[in-house]
Write a structure and sequence with these properties.
Shape: globular
Structural class: alpha/beta
Radius of gyration: 20 Å
Oligomer: single chain
Strand content: 15-25%
Order of helices and strands: EEEHHEEHEHHEEEHHHHHEHEHHE
Distance between the termini: 20 Å
CATH superfamily of the largest domain: ATPase, nucleotide binding domain
Largest sheet: 7 strands, mixed
Helix content: 25-40%
CATH architecture of the largest domain: 2-Layer Sandwich
Number of helices: 13
CATH topology of the largest domain: Nucleotidyltransferase, domain 5
Number of strands: 12
């Protein structure tokens, strides 16, 4: 049975997830997993680069450093699983997004993490650069995971919404009626602003279980100011990243309200995530929401999402048979499979592309 290796590092920029997976009978079977955290200095350089603070030398150096770490993560996953690398058909590497600008006269999306290094060091064919073919066809190159969600999480008996809580939140609405189109887009920040403000104010890289946010209260005027950002009202297709929602965005909002304490800003940011997601959910009264991504480990965020999304039921993809942490790396393993099988990997109704396209470039070992 063909095995695939998916590599994913998202907008949280906290590390790289690897998963070894096969797809028997259109099911997902995980054979092994591995995670590598970014060293603090590398993470800080990546965050700075994503906010346009860097030179061409920085881009080149970080492309190499991230590619090396991706290769190391892949090799770690293979060693832990005890698999023969000759049984792995390909690696699907998302790379690390450092800039995503899908609008304007010259749209682009830039992921670093040199796939040549991955192919060379693992000895496995590597598929990468998934986003730009969709963009060449007029799409936004994101989000791409709704195609995987549709293939594996769709139901003939209920409407479902897959909610990914990474640095940025995105949703995939999967209607039970096959004649209805899938809807997918980035709703805005999930963990990105929470992590950025927590690191800036406390020195901790994230707010474990939302404990610091629970010390504060929601400042309604500040929340209204945040929600007035034009991104939230923009119609789909739409996608975003840290070039938009970053620490400077939070600081700008906080400077307008100097009376608000740091803990209250954190609590208000968590409310922003919960409210902005709930307001943008498709109108489907019987829909079930299944969350995935790192935000599912924040118990307070999940509690507040259940409140703002009520009366809809909020669960996680664990109830669909896939651990929330591994959904995205599995998706990019599947996208690599789509590429080598010469099958499309995008959903034009989600990205805005002019049609289905085979995504990715292949780097042969």
């Amino acid at each position: 049975m063909a095995t695939w290796l998916g590599l994913m590092s998202g907008t949280s920029m906290d590390g790289i997830d690897a998963v070894l997976v096969s797809f028997p009978g259109n099911q997902v079977k995980i054979h092994g997993t591995h995670t590598t955290a970014y060293p603090d200095d590398l993470r800080q350089r990546l965050i700075q680069l994503s906010q346009n603070h860097g030179t061409p030398d920085d881009i080149g150096e970080l492309d190499h450093a991230v590619g090396s770490l991706f290769a190391e993560t892949a090799e770690g996953a293979i060693a832990k699983a005890g698999l023969d690398r000759h049984d792995i058909r390909a690696v699907g590497s998302h790379g690390q997004t450092i800039r995503h600008q899908p609008l304007g006269a010259t749209p682009f999306s830039l992921q670093i993490g040199d796939p040549n290094l991955i192919a060379e060091r693992t000895g496995i064919n590597t598929v990468a650069d998934f986003r730009r073919r969709d963009m060449a066809a007029g799409g936004q190159g994101a989000p791409l995971v709704p195609a995987f969600h549709k293939a594996f999480f769709g139901s003939a008996t209920e409407d479902r919404c897959i909610l990914n809580l990474g640095g940025i939140a995105n949703i995939s609405w999967l209607p039970q009626n096959p004649k209805d189109r899938v809807i997918g887009f980035d709703t805005g920040p999930a963990n990105a602003l929470l992590d950025a403000w927590c690191l800036d104010q406390t020195g901790r890289p994230y707010d474990d279980q939302g404990l610091w946010a629970q010390e504060g209260i929601v400042h309604q005027v500040l929340l209204g100011d945040m929600l007035s950002d034009g991104y939230f009202a923009r119609p789909a297709p739409k996608s975003t990243g840290k070039e938009k929602f970053n620490l400077e965005w939070v600081r700008t909002m906080a400077r307008r309200h100097p009376e608000v304490s740091a803990a209250d800003v954190q609590r208000t940011l968590l409310e922003l995530t919960a409210v902005s997601i709930a307001r943008q959910l498709p109108q489907s009264p019987d829909m079930t929401i299944f969350a995935c991504g790192g935000g599912t480990r924040n118990g307070f965020l999940m509690r507040e999402l259940r409140r703002t999304c009520s009366p809809l039921t909020l669960s996680t993809t664990a109830d669909l048979g896939l651990d929330p942490q591994w959904v995205e790396p599995v998706a990019f393993a599947w996208l690599a499979k789509q590429t080598l099988d010469r099958r499309p990997g995008n959903l034009p109704e989600v990205t805005g592309a002019s049609g289905e396209r085979i995504l990715g470039a292949v780097y042969f070992a």
